[in-house]
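Record 1 of the preview.
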Amino acid sequence: MSFTAEVRDELARCAPECTYCDVSTLAALVRVCGTLSITGKGGYQLQVATETGAVARTMIELTHKILKLKTDLTVRRSILHKVRNYLIVLPDQPDLEKALVLLGILDRSGGLVAGVPRHVANRACCRRAFVRGSLIAGGFVADPKGDFHLEIAVQGEQFARDLAALIEGMGVHARVNPRRGAYAVYIKSAEDIKMLLSKLGANRAVAEIEEARAVKSVKNDVNRRVNAELANQTRSAGAAQRQIELIEALEKLGLRRDLPEALETFCALREAHPDLSLRDLGQLSDPPLSKSALYHRVLRLEKMVEEARGETPGE
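->
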């Protein structure tokens, strides 16, 4: 089961906080993945198509519980994608128009409602239920082992912006983006995704996100340390090679035999250990020397070579 399916299933099992929350959840389900059509007799037919069992189960349960309406369910299995397709149909029946008004799909004059109807999102708990239903119906939550991303695909710009405003009212930053004739209400921040799922009651999903973030943090820290160590080793290897070349230059210029004891000791150590850093090389000295002390000896050798070649120091 994908992480999105796990989140949807967990949200679908959340208990309503008040007697009106189920209406808000059902309204969101119908609005996000439902299709309303007018029959030849001037009546209505509502279809809800989904590949998510949680959506189908919730849709049928709430329709029977709240609306007391007849529903027809057709289940098909896609051979190509190997998933079930659920088609829930509410055929034309006496109380269907009243139900559509109750759910905020139609207004009292029979016109379509463009945004989120106020009466189904009047209370804070009902607003949470509406967002929860929208996420169950059209939501996607990326596996936290990869990138953090949550989005809800909806139809209609006004509805998308109203839904984003409901999420903003919960203290979570949401954005709206047009996408292939539809709209996506999306969240990119891991903290915001955690906060939203926590407020909606998906505590198991929140725990998985926290665990994934902890693992990512450890991996990132290890990678930073490894990269820093590799960079240090590369710099040390480059510096050591330049010091070997400096010693060879001393030999060619005939300066090696007249070196002071301290400088000769450094040259001998470097030739014996061409791969060590100055810090490690200093530990082999007798007595041990600091990295700074050895670096100053390198500078003295560089100055001697530059003066012998008639160069200006630092060129």
